[in-house]
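So, can you check these tokens?
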Amino acid sequence: MALACATHARRFLLAGPARSFHAQPYQAKVGVVEFLNGVGKGVEAHAAKLEEAVGGDMQRLLEARTLRLKKLGIPCKHVMP
């Protein structure tokens, strides 16, 4: 019995990682307009204004605060956690 367990353990360790048939996630570079169109809920109407304000940089859009967006004339809710 112990020999059989050792054989299975050795086969498992020497076989390497199991193959995965699931699709691997990938990263795609997305611009501000594409991101806002994906969000929906009416923000796509302000996509051009936001892209002009943040220069098409996704990181700057994510760092933009609610008050800055309101100064640009974009309606947004200030949700308290």
Remarks:
- Helices lie at 2-15, 32-39, 47-54, 58-63, 66-71.
- The radius of gyration is 25 Å.
- The mean pLDDT is 72.
